[in-house]
Amino acid sequence: MDIEPNDEFLLFTDGITEQLAHGAGWFGTDRLAESFRNAKQGCVPAVKGVLDDVESYRGTHSRSDDRCIVAFGRVAAET
Questions:
Q1: On the CB side of 3, how many CA atoms lie within 13 Å of its CA?
Q2: In which band, very low, low, confident or very high, does the pLDDT at 6 lie, cut at 50, 70 and 90?
Q3: Distance, C-alpha 27 to centroid of its chain
């Protein structure tokens, strides 16, 4: 796999995708992908945005699993 300039990647544990909300089911991979696509560029803002979305989705439902997110990317070379 070639990693091109400005590519960003997200690694995560199932504690992210399997977060439940009252009456709404799991956060899931579709919501995660949408959250990551809509996040501000850069790894730190992307992780913060995803975690904020998961917490917002969770509402008052308990957190039932640990969570880990790692984001990385390749920056474009300066010319």
A1: 9
A2: confident
A3: 11
For tokens 């501000």, the residue is 40
Six-digit token pair at 68? Answer: 């880990």
Percent of the chain with pLDDT over 70: 99
6: alpha, beta or left? (left if phi > 0; alpha if psi -120 to 50): left
Runs of H (alpha helix) within 1-79: 14-17, 28-38, 43-58
DSSP codes joined into one string, 32-46:
HHHHHHHSPSSHHHH
What pLDDT does 23 receive? 85
What does pTM read for this prediction?
A: 0.85
The residue to which tokens 């399997």 are assigned: 18
CA dist., res. 29 & res. 17, Å (int): 6
Q: Are 78 and 5 in contact (CB under 8 A)?
A: no
